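Predict the assembly for these two chains.
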Amino acid sequence: MNKKQIGKQSVKFKHPPYIRGAASIVGSKEAEGPYGEYFDEVESDPTAGKDSWEAAEGKLQERAAELAISKAGCKKSDIRYIVAGDLLGQLMASSFGLMNLNIPMFGVYGACSTMGESIAIASMIAEGGFADNVLALTSSHFASAEKQFRFPNGYGTQRPKAATWTVTGSGAVVISSSCITDSTPGSFSSDNLPSKELLAEKNKVHIKGITTGKIIDYGIKDSMNMGACMAPAAGDVIVQHFIDFGMSPQQYDKIITGDLGKVGKDILLDIVKSKGYDISENYMDCGIEIYGEDQNVQAGGSGCGCSGTMLTGYILKMLQSGEWKRVLFVPTGALLSQVSFNEGDSVPGIAHAVLLERGTI
Amino acid sequence: MNKKQIGKQSVKFKHPPYIRGAASIVGSKEAEGPYGEYFDEVESDPTAGKDSWEAAEGKLQERAAELAISKAGCKKSDIRYIVAGDLLGQLMASSFGLMNLNIPMFGVYGACSTMGESIAIASMIAEGGFADNVLALTSSHFASAEKQFRFPNGYGTQRPKAATWTVTGSGAVVISSSCITDSTPGSFSSDNLPSKELLAEKNKVHIKGITTGKIIDYGIKDSMNMGACMAPAAGDVIVQHFIDFGMSPQQYDKIITGDLGKVGKDILLDIVKSKGYDISENYMDCGIEIYGEDQNVQAGGSGCGCSGTMLTGYILKMLQSGEWKRVLFVPTGALLSQVSFNEGDSVPGIAHAVLLERGTI
């Protein structure tokens, strides 16, 4: 057996799968933000032509899925599995939105870390030889999330400064198995590919490895400060990633968390620093980036769709263009439910790290 | 690359992973049923010493997990991943129940098909070389499910004959990678194992393959008749399994669905027959079996814990003893949420098939 596990909780792929196609779709508010031009599609109707917020979110997933499949140059029948999830109870957006694709499906839930979880599982399926093409996707919708987790919007509840704004959008990637091998981080090789094909293969964005997170609970109960709830989990998985891969922060062009927001960012940088790593120079958070200062979103954006759309809209384009070569993508999730909140439970966090690389570094 | 995909939606493992340890824990009602003696532990306190139904369900998961790890002869630190889920919104039982295990976690949701989904993903992780030992588990709890999906129990709502009773219980398995190879169904071989060790390896219960289900929606909206909602998905994946593996129903000792109940059973047998297969001779449904005729459960048992505890309590023991040699285990899920029900949506189904074999057939 080819063992691919390294360190305590990471995998380094021998044949790193690659991102064959990616698509993003967002709502109006996200389109008006600083990254608006990068997203593939904008849905300006909050209900996306459907009768409910949940159905609207499902529609966003369906459109992102179809666009990612098309951009990958695939037909639906080329996709062997879907790995998908969302924030809603019983994954309502994924279950109803993806039904018509008629593809075998694994539903996953990692709160807003779902894009990291779905990519991790899809990558193992592709690299393990179980599928040629796997679709990994997620979504969130401001209104379906508010309805699920918080107050009826009509109450006009005030939002504290640590609160975040749930992104309306969906991001989807087609992850495909690769024939090239990777012996050490930063170098690809192949015994049997002609040099031109090898170069083309090398220049794709590959998933070189994953570091899977544990549930981390610091006992924080403030559902309006999810950044603080998630930062410990993000710090834990990022530091473990460095240890498992024997890498230092300076070896990454960017280290990008999902939706910690302004409050969570400060906590994360402190946690990571206390463990001997300084990531402040190349750190970025999708939640802080996706909206502008003038968009009145308090600490930033959040939701599965936040890191999902920033990955497929912006991050992958920066990698594809060669602007960045190596990125650690770390979607972050707050394991919160209506019931756990009402029962006075804490909000544990989880985060999953995905090592993305383009070409030979 | 070693391709392991066969047919349209199946995987046949080259090195079939095996079930290294399994554990079941149930509530009083399940212990009083016809399979009571098979379950490992009985928790007679409906709240399991906790303050809420959800925390009680989480406690069942934690205990099943710890027992399965111990029965596998493992320490917690030997388990590389948890793949777990439950019926509750945002997987509340798994998130809170498994936190203290301190193991990297993938949360999954497939409604009551979750035991099939978690075993499928865990098996691919183990066989793909990504982990030596993976814990797959699920749970349900009568009271937490009623609270999540239906009426406050205090209302005393009448239960129609097609309704099912959510099982209180959790089932957990440790799935481990194997060094023996499988070239054709029914035969194991090894180039380098001594005959005694090979025989011991062969006699374990192996996961020989999986067939992953699609979401199937026949438009049924009756949440009190989940058997009818799930039967089409079960029929679809069972027939596809036969086609992909080139097998006939007679080649299985048992074909076992999760929780179709009495109504769903009849529909399933009809659907499968209409596609040219007769499984009536060796068919069994965990939901029909788990409670006795005198236990007032209408059409049978349901919930993730139904197939989870019947697998770990009874089915695996029948395989380990050699009573059965080959079983197709097909947990079935109804993709229902409080919100989808209130919005008048249909109840789509999904089912995942797992091919279990002991020894050389």
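Chain B touches chain A through 65 residues (CB under 8 Å). The first strand of chain B starts at residue 5 and ends at 6.
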